[in-house]
Amino acid sequence: MPILSRIGRKSPQTRLLIAAIYAALLAGALAMLYPLGLMIAGSTKSIADQRETALLPRFLVSDEALWQKHLEALFNESMDSLNIAFDTDYATFEDIPLPPPDGPGSELLPLWREFLASGALPQHAIALGHYWAPQAGAFPAQLREFRHRLRGKFGTLAALNAALGSDFDAWYAVFLQPPAYLFPHAKPDATPLATEFDAFKLAAPDWCQTVLSPEGFFKKLYLKPRHSKDIAAYNAAHGTAHASYADVPLPREFPADASPLEQQEWRDFTANTLSPLWQTNGILDTPDSRWRDFLSKQNHSTILDSSFLILNSPMPQFAHHADLFRAHKAEIRREFLVRNFRTVLDYILFHGRGIANTVIYCTLAVLLALLVNPLAAYALSRFKPSAGPQILLFLMLTMAFPHMVTQIPVFILLRELGLLNTFAALLLPGMASGYSIFLLKGFFDSLPRDLYESAQLDGAGEWTLFWHITMRLSTPILSVIALQAFSVAYANFMYALLICQDPKMWTLMVWLYQLQQRSGPGVVQASLLLAALPTLAVFLACQRVLLRGIVVPVEK
């Protein structure tokens, strides 16, 4: 019979009350879903959009936002690398607009692609993007692909270490920092791993490759810090009248007819700042100069309307990558949707025994909780010892002390017993729970005594009474105990780290903590979402049993 009769529900006051109840429930649901939505949106973040707080990530609906995230990944989170390659002075990735298809440099794109396809550039002139994310802490697409190629080529980590002379302890740790070939200390093929990397980057997709620009390096990291971003300071020091730094040349050889200051800067830059890779017998040989040589040999008067443009046109990388971005938008968007989740999965799947340890620990914790606690509660409920209330009070008093208080004594005791870095150390201290025994005793007391008397008349022993009657009738409360035991064991971090300091015994939560220490907000939120999935799955599995325990007694 319903609480409100059919006639009573027609009353305006009753309808208003019901509407208010539904509104309150809806508001509560939205209040719970809003933080979850923010976390889901945050799990796709990188450095370019980490300050956004929208429920829907902007890069899913805005090409410009996706373009900015792409540039951040293309230049491995380095604004200096971007400004060197594009000859710009942007301060952040969020400042960079998506140029129109017919923007500056677009008329040179056919020639630029012909130049790239001609093989005129050495391998050290190519830089690989979507490979390194030092601030976000993610494993970008090309880094994952690089590890996949090495795993396919060498098979095992031991074989890779033997062949390349490396000492990686896990596949997730296989990494080579991209060589900075513009700087003097960088040398191509310095190690076998660097050789593998250089061969890999040349086979990478074109939307992940950029061309190094020594001339951009000269202007961005040499001239501008010495003078100013304002060309007026440079002109005043050199007695020139350049309109911008784009007009400042980098002579291929020593400028004998230039001013003493220009000669000194050329000598200092080529001798102390720029890598010898770009010099041959005192003459600079750069991608910029090869590009201009390529243009000067072409006869494209329909495209290039002046010899000045032919001889001085910079490499059109900005327009080139904008065009590639438009062609690969869907692929790039998918990458940013899954990158942080792939990072977490790659880390925990190929990192020690975190998953195996967690499965073993949680399984044993649930089994022990379902064995020890029911036995203790059954003894108190069935035999009713005279000191039963005092025993129950003592068990409940254990809840008054936080776990932090008992961790040090437990650690010392386990150390004296020689149990550190074992599953026994993880399981024994929490095997019995005063709260669980209290709940179970109350539930056992509610079971009808007639069942036990009838079973005893049929010759049933105590084990039969406990296992076939008490445990069978206690499925709902046992599911609560199992869910609680799983949740405590699965989320156990501080105790697991204290008792098991050997990485071979670390559980999933400890490994995720290590990952979060070196990761940005996006990877952290992705790890939290993935870590919540097992708990959600266990709760959904126990939900029917829990509801059955609520509904069936009411129906009876």
In short:
The chain is mainly α and 556 residues long.
Task: Give a written overview of the molecule.
The strands form two sheets. This protein has a two-stranded antiparallel ribbon with strand order 1-2. The protein has a two-stranded antiparallel ribbon with strand order 3-4. It has helices spanning 12-42, 63-74, 79-86, 109-117, 141-154, 157-164, 192-202, 214-226, 231-238, 260-273, 287-297, 307-312, 317-327, 329-349, 354-383, 388-397, 403-417, 423-427, 434-445, 449-457, 462-473, 475-490, 494-499, 508-517, 521-555, and strands at 126-128, 209-211, 279-280, 283-284. It is built from 25 helices and four strands. It folds into four domains: 8-42; 59-212 and 323-347, no CATH class; 214-285, no CATH class; 352-555, MetI-like fold, CATH 1.10.3720. The longest helix is centred in the last third of the chain and has 35 residues, at 521-555. Mean pLDDT is 86; it is low at 300-310 and 551-556. It starts with 11 loop residues before the first helix and ends with a helix. Helix 3 crosses helix 8 (214-226). Helices cover 61% and strands 2% of the residues. With 556 residues, it is mainly alpha-helical.
Helix content: 55-70%
Instruction: Summarize the helix and strand pattern as letters.
Output: HHHHEHHHEHHHEEHHHHHHHHHHHHHHH
How is the biggest beta sheet arranged? 2 strands, antiparallel
CATH architecture of the largest domain: Orthogonal Bundle
Shape: elongated
Mean pLDDT: 86
What is the count of structural domains?
4
Quickly name the level 1 CATH class of the largest domain.
Mainly Alpha
Output the CATH topology of the largest domain. Answer: MetI-like fold
